[in-house]
Hints:
By secondary structure, the protein is an all-alpha fold. The chain is built from six helices and no strands. The chain has helices at 2-35, 66-84, 88-109, 120-137, 140-153, 169-185. Helix 2 packs parallel to helix 4, helix 3 packs across helix 6 and helix 4 (120-137) runs antiparallel to helix 5 (140-153).
Amino acid sequence: xxxxxxxxxxxxxxxxxxxxxxVALLWVLEGIDVATGNSLDTYGxxxxxxxxxxxxxxxxxxxxxxxHVASNSVPLLVLGFIAALGGIRxxxxxxxxxxxxxxxxxxxxxxPDTVTLGASGVxxxxxxxxxxxxxxxxxxxxxxxxxxxxAVYGSLLWGVLxxxxxxxxxxxxxxxxxxxxxxxxxxxxxxPRDPGRVxx
Length: 200
C-alpha cells in the first residue's frame, strides 16, 4: 500500500511539474513575442501554404496576446495535469497526436489570409481525450474522471462551432478530434481474465 501511495504521489508531482513548466513557457514566449514586436507570430499557421506545415508544432505554443495566453493557461494546466497522471510518455504521445491533428486541420480548412496560433487546440484535445479515455480503456476510475471533466469543462465544446470569426473553431474541432483519436490509438491493452474462474 505504501509503495502504491508513493508511486501515485511521484506521478502527481511529476505531472504538476511538467504542466507548470509548460504554462510558464507559454508566458515566457508571449513575453518574448511582445518585447520583439510580435515577431513570433510568424510561426503561426497560414492555411494551405506548404512552407507553413513546419509551423504546425510551434504554433501550439504561441499566442496573440496576454489575454489569449491567460485564457488558455488554467484549462491547459488542469486538463494537462489530469492527463499526465497516466504517465508522462503516454501524455507526450497524446499531446503530439493532438498538436499535429489540430495543426493540420487548421492548415487544411482555415480561411485564407489568416494566421492561427495558440494552445486552445491542445486544450480541446485533452478535453476530448479525457472524456473518452475511460470508455476506451474500460477503466471505471477514468470514466468517473471523464464525467467530472465533462461537468466542469463540457461547456467548452461550444467552441467547436463557428460562432466567432476571431476564434479558430477549426483548431478547436480538430484538436478535439485529435484527442479522441489519441484515446483509441494509445488505448491500454486489456488484462486477460483468469481462466480458472470460468462459469457457465
